[in-house]
Amino acid sequence: MQRFGQVIGIRAEHVEEYIRLHADVWAGVLKKIAECNIRNYSIYRYGDLLFAYMEYHGDDFEGDMAAMAADETTQKWWELCMPMQKPVEDRAEGEWWKTIDEVFHTD
Amino acid sequence: MQRFGQVIGIRAEHVEEYIRLHADVWAGVLKKIAECNIRNYSIYRYGDLLFAYMEYHGDDFEGDMAAMAADETTQKWWELCMPMQKPVEDRAEGEWWKTIDEVFHTD
Hints:
Strand content of chain A: 25-35%
Number of strands of chain A: 5
Largest interface: A-B, 35 and 35 residues
Shape of chain A: globular
Number of helices of chain A: 4
Helix content of chain A: 25-40%
Distance between the termini of chain A: 12 Å
Oligomer: homodimer
């Protein structure tokens, strides 16, 4: 299993809408997340930053992420979410959410 | 089970030492974390911010946190860590790490 921490900005004027939307995520989006072997996925907010924590239980992360990106329902969800988000400047090439380094873990 | 997200600042001049220290946390500190019913505890770093994710599996969070704070080894560990940390201004009264709101979760 691989754990991931990620960060992205949230535009102040969209915080309330983002929270409302994520309190009731579409069933098709949740289904695809599960099909793509993501488990125990949480997003937290600190001011204008969102932090994500998730666990990947598959054995082909790139393939699963490509399958998620190809899913029509997920694409429609992202069309809603992406304009509310503001990716951080120092993310890696090709990233939307920036992957951040684990400093500590204990089971 | 309760999930927690937390955030705290890290002083730029102490980032390397903090990372080094947390790559090899004292056994007594880890033991106390487990005894206090904390599981699946991770800390990630984004620049001068640390983001923590943890799961609490007990039924007396305040009591367990008090037991942790009373533990001599944990106190010595905190004496090392706290000067490297810079709590965020908008934390709640009595907080060191600021508890942040969950926006989304899926199992």
